[in-house]
Amino acid sequence: MNSNYLPEVIQRFEYYKSLGDKTFEQLSDEQLFWKANVESNSIANIVRHLWGNMLSRWTDFLTTDGEKEWRDREGEFADANANRAEMLRQWDAGWNCLFDALRSLTEQDLDKTIYIRNQGHTVTEAISRQLAHYASHVGQIIFIGKMLRGSSWKSLSIGRGESVNYNAEKFSQPKQ
C-alpha cells in the first residue's frame, strides 16, 4: 500500500469539506433550507444526512458496525435543523468525527476488515465508499447553491471562460 494513502485521502476529504464551506458562505439562511419540491432535500437536509452518516460510520470505526443502532437515517431527511448555526454545528461535528478516525489509523489498519450493515469491507474499501458518498452529496450542495445564486455564484474552481488562462499558467510552470 502506498504510504501516502492516508494523508492523500485526508486531503481529499478536506477538499470536499472546503467546497461545502465555500458554498455555505455564499448562501442566505433561507437558501440553506430551500427545497425545489416536497420530494427534494434542502442543503440543510443533506448536511443532516451527512452528519448522521459520518457519526455512524466513523465512531468506533475499527471495532463496531458502521450502521449504529442509534442512527435515525430516516430522521436525517426531516426538516429538523433549526437554523444556520445548528446546521454548521452538525456539518463540523460530522467532519471532525471522520478526521479524528482517519488520523488515528495506521498503514497496518488499511487491510483490516470492518463492517457496514454487516457487510465486510477492508478499511481502504470503506474509506473509498465514504469518499464517493460524501463527494456526491457535496456536489448536490454545490449544485443547489449554484442554482439559487445564479449569476451571483462565485465559482469554486475554474470559472467560466477562464480555462485557457488557467491552463496557460499551469503549463508555464515546471511539472510538480
UniProtKB/TrEMBL annotation:
Protein name stated in the entry: DUF1572 domain-containing protein
